[in-house]
Amino acid sequence: MVTGSKTDANAVRWIRTRVLVLAFVFVPVFGALVYRAIQLQVVENPKLTGMARDQYDRQITLPGRRGAILDRRGSSLAATVDVDSVWANPSEIEDARSAAQILGKALKLDPRKLESTLSGARQFAWVKRHVTPQEAAAIKAANLKGISFVKEPRRFYPQRELAAHVLGFSGIDAKGLEGLELVFDEELKGKPQAISGLRDARGRAAFVEGAVPAEQLAGASLTLTLDSAIQYQTEKVLQAAVTKAEAAAGIAVVLDPSTGELLALANVPTFNPNDPGRYQRKALRNRAVTDQFEPGSTFKVFTVAAALEEQAVRPTSLLDCEKGHYRIGRHTIHDHGGYAEIDVGRILQVSSNIGVAKIAEKLGRERLQAYHRAFGFGEKPGTNLPGEARGSLPFPRAEVALATQSFGQGLSASALQIAAGVGAVANGGTLMRPFLVSKVVTADGKVLLENKPEAVRRAVSRETAAEVLRMMKTVVERGGTAPLARMDDYEVAGKTGTAQKADPVTGGYSVDKRTASFVGVVPADAPRLVILVVIDEPKTDVYGGIVAAPAFKEIAQAALAHLGVPPSPSAKARAVASPAQPEKGSSGSAARSRLASAFAMAAVRPSLGAIPSEGFVEELGSEQAPVEGATRVPDVQGLTARAAVKALVAAQLEPSLVGSGRAIGQTPPAGTSVKKGSRVAVRLEANL
Q1: At what angle do helices 96-107 and 111-118 cross, to 10 degrees?
Q2: Is residue 415 located within the same domain as residue 556?
Q3: Three-state SS for 184?
Q4: 338 and 480 part of one domain
Q5: pLDDT digits over 327-370, tens only?
Q6: How far apart, in whole angstroms, are the C-alpha atoms of residue 302 and residue 145?
Q7: The one catalytic residue among 75, 85, 148, 297
Q8: 3-class SS at 277?
Q9: Among this protein's residues, is 297 annotated catalytic?
Q10: Per DSSP, what are the bridge partners of residue 88?
């Protein structure tokens, strides 16, 4: 019995010992587990929760969409479309070299650089952003593992080169870099929005919370004063003039003198803002705004206006033009004609340097410069476009400086300043501030900016302005320097300019480089437009009346027809009094109608509504393919010229008008099935 008790006692002790040993072993383990559980569930909970969420939840930032830029009639000049961008997950790509070869061929990229991009353990790398629809289709057909697409907003200019220097362009990250895109970048750029989304184990988007309304992403839109039709014709005529003159460059400005609105601002050379990288820097320069040059004889308008206003001379005052040679100290002023005594009006008509120099002598230095400043020279015009020139207007201390400044040498101005200054003459002596942007409106309709016509100052009296305008009319008549600017249907007032360019090497003037220009007001009896054409370094001929005046006339004829401006009563009376066949190159109803036809075709250039949802037309930089298919010719008989043009354009046909008044016949006849874009001749006759 005793032995059994000892055995039981030993067993109990052994059990206790094992329990104690196990307790010593497991208590710390359980303690550690409890400690770790508390650490994970309490202490590190926020951190671990964030790491877990990052595996499946992602904050997705939707980029803002740049607002549209529209012309005065609502036509799209700049828009934003969604396009594909290609990215890679290198960790999923098994054969980087093979993938690089395929992508390089499809995207026209260096396969060696692509191979480096596609190698490694990264999970994201851009391959190429903003690819064309053709490039995207080629990559999708290859079905490469680890290659994906994402939609990004891409800035698109549906009218290609139209108004390129005014619009400027934006970069690949939708940041404005030039022109109005830069000036109004803050308003245009839109508002990026962050939203929550889910992704699967491979990092692909699986679900996104809700949709962000488009107006929350969209930036403000700009409405410009430009008229796309006038801009198109101005660019077309300017390019032809520069080519014909074998010139280095050209500038054209079309301005409404009563409001200061710029209807067209053209430069040659130009560029396509859809692909600005392939152009030289000089093609991107907005010469009409940034370039300063000696204006030459167009400046005589302001000198004569100042002298008349101050009554230093009268219109009938006679001045001796010294038969073409006038010495001032060691310098000699020359005229191209050997004039003796002629009056002030004749001095402006024949553009006598000597006559204007003597007018400036009578006016005096202080008054001459004060009036030049009153016309806006020596100050920025105020469009706020990048690089807007102030010009140079030094005080003419020397006698010869007074003389040369009177006819536009020894100072500098921009084309925009010259057009605005002549605009003051056309506007009864009041200088208006030129402007390009009429309104800036947010996506929800809030008006951020609205420009109204703004009078800067009165430069001269209404009476003086009218007298100068009358003198300028004689410039385009026989005996003037610009008969090629004369129009049959409208009164024209203008002034030529032919200025030697400064030679930076010699410090004097170049013997063979000149700036030829013509600035005109139409109709001169009721001004609607001021048009300036500047041809830089022409080679075929150097005179503004020969190389710039015809371009002015062509732009004016088309613009007036487009705006529906009736012919000048005095011009109609003149035509009735002396009927004659129009001279070669002269204007007339047929010419006006042909140019109106060109306007109609400009109106059907690509617009926002024609942009494919998958991309931006075909391939940037390529010409658009002609429209396929057929259409029926509408019946336009009995319609006015404008109504006929509208009906034909709606049917995607090119109008060709002959005559004026209402339509009395058409070829092909109404109902004929023709190819879209075909020309339809319409005969017009008045007094029906």
Answers
A1: 130
A2: yes
A3: coil
A4: yes
A5: 998 999 988 878 999 999 999 999 999 999 999 999 999 999 99
A6: 71
A7: 297
A8: helix
A9: yes
A10: 125, 147
